[in-house]
Design goal:
Layout lengths: L1 H7 L15 H4 L16 H21 L4 H18 L3 H19 L11 H16 L3 H5 L4 H6 L3 H10 L6 H5 L5 H4 L2 H5 L17 H31 L4 H17 L11 H21 L9 H10 L2
Helix pairs in contact: 3-4, 3-5, 3-14, 3-15, 3-16, 5-14, 14-15, 14-16
């Protein structure tokens, strides 16, 4: 629907960014256009993260659900092209990396390693900044960056995270329960980094671009416990039902990995990116409903296609 409305020139609602900028990736093949504002999207990042999740599921479906291979390939192409038009690099790269990882997991059949996946969001920011220190020395990354500072600071993530961490140096009631929605603003943190987002309206409300930090600001340590509990429940269901339906579980794993990896640099598990938030809980609900049918050989059914159906409905 977004594509149709875009072709028709329909405009719906307001957009977060006031300065669009050029689509850098496709400019490398001689197509010079501004980043596309899709009519039903509220912002580049919010829509790109949703498309990245759907691309992850579609790519994985190509390999593991041959019955819908043609639809999976078509969906993957559509999501990929839309991401190129939005010019979202992470949402393109992560699904490809996850596609490779899920194939390795499936082939090696070492599913128990997935229990350590939540550590991605703990160690991820460190690896992220180390990568950008390395990338700043390579001309290729400079060529697809919107500014020299973007590579040096990880698109200002390092500065935002440093400000955020400084707000948690002293333990108090807010550390335990959080400030509520837009806790980063209530704490004064986002006021300090608001100037980094001059192209956004209400830049002082900009989130901390990290899921763990967002949860700490909004819901405190209690929120972290709930978040980890939900992830742990999902992981346990994967491990226990793995031998009964690997294809269904590999789709769950693919999206779980995407959610964890993209959450290193974006703020989920809150109401800032509702489309991605809804998809996350939709996947968990489907998994929970399917689990009783997967947890024993007697009740075994093939439910992987139903998760794929969700990805097509979300478009």
């Amino acid at each position: 629907m977004n594509i149709v409305f875009w072709f028709l020139g329909v405009t719906v609602g307001q957009f977060e960014e006031t300065n669009i900028g050029q689509a850098l990736i496709i400019s490398k093949i001689g197509i010079n256009i501004d980043r596309v504002r899709f009519p039903l999207a509220t912002g580049f990042n919010s829509f790109a993260t949703l498309l990245g999740g759907l691309l992850t599921i579609s790519l994985t479906s190509i390999r593991f659900i041959p019955k819908y291979k043609l639809i999976s390939i078509s969906s993957s192409i559509i999501f990929f092209v839309m991401l190129l038009l939005i010019d979202s690099r992470a949402a393109i790269i992560y699904p490809i990396i996850i596609f490779i990882l899920t194939n390795i997991i499936y082939k090696k059949n070492n599913i128990k390693l997935i229990r350590f996946s939540p550590l991605i969001q703990i160690g991820g920011p460190i690896l992220f900044m180390l990568f950008f220190q390395f990338a700043s020395q390579i001309a290729l990354f400079d060529s697809i960056s919107r500014s020299s500072e973007e590579v040096q600071t990880g698109n200002s993530r390092s500065l935002i995270w440093a400000i955020s961490i400084s707000k948690f140096q002293d333990f108090n009631i807010y550390s335990l329960l959080g400030h509520g929605e837009y806790g980063h603003y209530a704490s004064g943190a986002s006021i300090a980094w608001g100037s980094f987002f001059g192209r956004f309206e209400n830049s002082d409300l900009m989130h901390p671009h990290n899921t763990i930090l967002m949860i700490l600001f909004d819901y405190g340590l209690l929120g972290i416990i709930i978040y980890l509990y939900l992830l742990n429940c999902s992981i346990k269901m994967i491990i226990k039902s793995w031998k009964y339906d690997k294809k269904f579980n590999i789709l769950i794993i693919s999206y779980l990995l995407y959610f964890l990896i993209i959450g290193i640099t974006e703020s989920f598990f809150g109401f800032y990116y509702l489309n991605t938030y809804y998809l996350f809980f939709s996947v968990l609900i489907i998994q929970a409903v399917a689990y009783p049918y997967l947890s024993s050989e007697k009740n075994k059914v093939r439910v992987a296609p139903h998760l794929y159906t969700l990805s097509t409905l979300e478009t």
